């Protein structure tokens, strides 16, 4: 199975990068992308884990970028996956740093608002849960769970952490057209993540999606746990029409979300397109044969 979207403790997943690789193998996933929010911090640990494997495995290094689409003042938050880009490309690297920095102030502001409303959590607790990873709402959700306020991180998102909650504070986001251009400049492959995950808030319409082809979008994440069947069908048609490839991915977050690795998968054909379009960095393959010999 090929799964091209997974999070680790470098952002808001609960597995360390090494644990993610082990869990992928156990789940029957032989090609996996590590795509933490706004960071490449998990990459090296993931590479080290892949190098130890005694089964065939391919690691795709990527990042999920926090972006904004602004059309005549209508602002829609969205996520853009970038695969196999050069992590040293300066403009994109600087943007990742700014977005991670913004996550700190914004996370603290959300916690302050929750504390002011009487919820028994603290910023220090959230920082400890994040353990140095890019801070996100799922970490605050876990603090709320530890405090007995909610039963799960998903429950926390139903009200307290949702984007329509009175405690919601936005974070820094890159204009999506700029993010696409910077990923391409870094030799990477931009793929729009879960574009029609309707329950998360406003989504891009077809015209807005089409408009991303010109700046250089190359793929659409069609099969995603948050996509309904009819939307998947329409997105697949749209990608064919626009000459984009389709991916399918779990968006695994370990224990912070109820989805398992390999719950959604990408075709070998799409994987080949993705790899063929990348000029930034290579995929990382395990070498079980060498070990056996
Ligand atoms: P943030 O990056 O801090 O804005 O938080 C967004 C993250 O929360 C994304 O990675 C989502 O995967 C995660 N998320 C969004 N909605 C939910 C939900 N209903 N349950 C669990 N995690 C969610
Ligand atoms: Zn996440
Ligand atoms: Fe996402
Ligand atoms: Fe994600």
Q: Structural class, judged by helices and strands?
A: alpha/beta
Under the CATH scheme, which architecture would be assigned? Alpha-Beta Barrel
Unreliable sequence segments = none
Coarse morphology = globular
Outline the structure in words:
With 293 residues, this protein is α/β, with parallel strands linked by helices. It has one domain (2-97, 171-292): Metal-dependent hydrolases (TIM Barrel, Alpha-Beta Barrel), CATH 3.20.20. The protein is built from eleven helices and nine strands. It has helices at residues 17-27, 43-51, 90-116, 123-130, 137-146, 153-158, 176-185, 206-210, 229-242, 268-277, 288-292, and strands at 2-3, 31-37, 58-71, 74-83, 174-175, 189-192, 219-223, 245-248, 284-285. The protein is globular. The mean pLDDT is 96. Bound molecules: adenosine monophosphate, zinc ion and fe (iii) ion (2 copies). One fe (iii) ion binds next to loops. Residues 12, 37, 136-138, 153-154, 157, 200, 253, 257 line the site of adenosine monophosphate.
């Amino acid at each position: 199975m090929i799964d091209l979207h997974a999070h680790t403790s470098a952002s808001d997943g609960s597995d360390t990068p090494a644990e993610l690789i082990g869990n992928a193998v156990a789940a029957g996933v032989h090609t996996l992308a590590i795509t933490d929010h706004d960071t490449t911090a998990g990459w090296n640990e993931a590479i080290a884990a892949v190098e130890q494997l005694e089964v065939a495995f391919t690691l795709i290094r990527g990042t999920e970028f926090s972006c904004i689409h602004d059309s005549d003042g209508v602002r829609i938050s969205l996520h853009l996956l970038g695969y196999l880009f050069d992590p040293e490309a300066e403009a994109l690297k600087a943007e990742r740093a700014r977005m991670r920095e913004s996550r700190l102030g914004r996370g603290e502001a959300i916690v302050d608002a929750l504390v002011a409303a009487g919820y028994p959590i603290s910023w220090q607790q959230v920082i400890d849960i994040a353990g140095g990873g890019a801070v996100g709402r799922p970490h605050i959700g876990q603090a709320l769970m530890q405090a007995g306020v909610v039963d799960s991180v998903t429950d926390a998102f139903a009200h307290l952490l949702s984007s329509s909650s009175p405690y919601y504070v936005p974070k820094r986001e890159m204009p999506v057209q700029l993010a696409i251009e910077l990923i391409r400049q870094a030799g990477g492959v931009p793929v729009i993540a879960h574009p029609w995950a309707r329950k998360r808030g406003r989504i891009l319409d077809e015209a807005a999606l089409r408009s991303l082809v010109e700046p250089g979008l190359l793929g659409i994440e069609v099969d995603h746990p948050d996509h309904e069947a009819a939307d998947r069908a329409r997105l697949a048609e749209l990608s064919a029409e626009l000459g984009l490839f389709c991916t399918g991915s779990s968006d695994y977050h370990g224990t912070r979300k109820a989805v398992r690795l390999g719950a959604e998968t990408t075709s070998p054909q799409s994987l080949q397109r993705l790899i063929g379009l990348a000029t930034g960095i290579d995929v990382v393959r395990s070498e079980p044969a060498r070990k056996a010999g």
